[in-house]
Amino acid sequence: MRSLFLKIFLSYWLAQALFLVLAILVTLAARQGRESSGWESQQSEVVGKAVQAYEQGGPNALHSYLSETRESRKIWAYLLDAQGHELSGQDLPRWAQSVAKGIRPVPREFWVRFTPSPFRRQTFRSSSGRQYLLVAMLPSGPFGPNGIPGLGILIGVVSSGIVCYLLALYLTSPIGRLREATRRLAEGDLTARAGSGGGLRRGDELAGLVRDFDAMAERLEQSVNAQSRLLHDISHELRSPLARLNVALALARQRTGPAAQSTLDRIELEAERLNVLIGDLLTIARLENGKDLSREAPVHLADLVEGITQDADFEAQSRKCHVVTR
To answer: Of these four, 81, 144, 212, 256, which has the most CB atoms within 10 Å of its CB?
Structure first.
């Protein structure tokens, strides 16, 4: 994962999602624990009244009491005798059958698995000496149908993802602009600016870095433009004395004899080369201004070597030497 945006986005998102899930689980588990503690303090009363209702009023009285308990306390309870028969005449659900056998059922809701068990099993011996067993399921609390479903946590995770996305975009957008402006500047576009187009009216360090880069690019553009103008001006200024030199050379040819023609030819050749160099300076100035003047031209190596040899031979004559090619 090389993208800085993805690193920041995924890191913050995973951290936020983990914190959100853990916070919800811990909070709701604590609430479920408090509900369980409340039941522990009431279970003796519920069992005693259920047994009393059965022994005094039979199955109908027991059924009425358990229904009232279900409506008022949201507790699903069943009273069994020593043989495991349900005494109120109700059908015993599977979870109650499992709890009666001492087996903890697997909750349907995924989130309930992270909380204390809502199932309870308690034996009770009445004053008549009979043995009873009460199985109960406590309210599902925040994890049940009326609590926070998995969709709520999903919404929280998605919301945190949106926030983390915007944060990562906020942090990395100046870096992306800097990268694009640096690439354009490296390609020769001196007008490239990272803060152009607005959107960086911020006071943080990244915005300050963008402004510093733009200031550097501005000074670089001014420096290169000044250098180009200097080369252009120097080239034009050199053309004037060179033109006068060519006029003087033409007059010298008219006033001198054949003996000085070779020397005058050399002067004319060097003047032409100087003119070519001035043209090259103007070309460099145009290239630095962003003008594409590139073109292909054939190079004759034999002529190039011959010209270099003639120049070297002319310079060597002052030392009474000669340069030749073989």
So the answer is: 144
